[in-house]
Write a structure and sequence with these properties.
- The protein is an alpha/beta fold.
- The chain has a domain of 134 residues.
- Helix content is 47%, strand content 17%.
- The protein contains five helices and eight strands.
- The strands form two sheets. A five-stranded mixed sheet has the order 1-6-4-5-2. Strands 3-7-8 form a three-stranded parallel sheet, covered by helices on one side.
- It starts with a helix and ends with a helix.
Length: 208
Amino acid sequence: MFCCTTTIIIVFVSLMCSLSSDVFCSSRLTNDKSYSLDLLLLSRNLEHRVKRTVVLPIKTIRFSQDSMNSKFSPQSPFKGQSVGHILDKILQGRGHYLLLLLQKYRVTHRNGVWYTINNRSLWVFKQLATRGYLKYVPALQVADIRKNRMTTKNAGKRIYVFGKVGGKFAKPGKFWKKAHRSMLKPSYFRKCHLISLVCKFRYTHVSL
């Protein structure tokens, strides 16, 4: 009887230990996730924490990313239009497009260099600067830039543009170059293939 009771106690203690370790691991995992989320929110807050307003020569501002899409976000005031089309409209006298680009235009100062957070806006500014229409821009200096956004490999002197630039007046220049399909990572094509399969499945399912 004593031996059986001892066995039950040992099994109960070991079970409680395993449960407590599982609870500890799950709480630790939760804490790790919340910690990484806090870091992400902190980095995003740094991009919106305005230190002061500055006026900078366009030639001194550099790109923060190695590449960019030629189209603005659908959620932006430009509703997915290409940088070339926005440039055309500004050159055709539609000044409110320039004002939209300047609105909340942000830069940060790193190691003595000014980097932009709005890379497409800077592309348009540099196109205007090469024609002599624009030399300086007002900007909001923010605390810092997100680590995953800072991807330039040439100190921000040049950016690669994916997709059609669009418009009629875009000029080639030292500050940008058209990106080739081969520059995309294989994971990008796997993701696109997966999306196409899902869309095809949904279309087939709806058709049936």
